[in-house]
Prior knowledge:
Elements: H1 2-11, H2 15-87, H3 97-108
Amino acid sequence: MALVKTIARFVGLRPWVVITAGLVVLLAAGTIGKCTYDRQVIADHVSQANNQTLSRTIETNDEAASEQLADHDRLSILQRNYDDALHDPPAGSSLDPRIRIDCQRLRHAGYGETDLPAPCRYGGGRGTGTGADR
Length: 134
């Protein structure tokens, strides 16, 4: 209390004003310290969340790229099969390219050779290209 009276005489204020001012300064310092600590905790948490999100994004992009590559390979094979059916037909297939492509579509839909119509079976129904063999 003697310190408060000495400070009060030096500043020219009453002791209760000095005590109140000291409490306000302590309260402000504590609040500023707490806010600084909270800001750092939040920044660390946000940084950790961003790192996790980035990690998941990288993994997801890698998976998507792999799937896209596999899809591209499957589509390339399908396109090659269709091109082969049109431009380089197997022996015994129809002469009409529309029939050959339709037959190729049926094969890719899961139909077996025995389930296909006669113009689609290899070795059977050599079409004339007029549509009469459909």
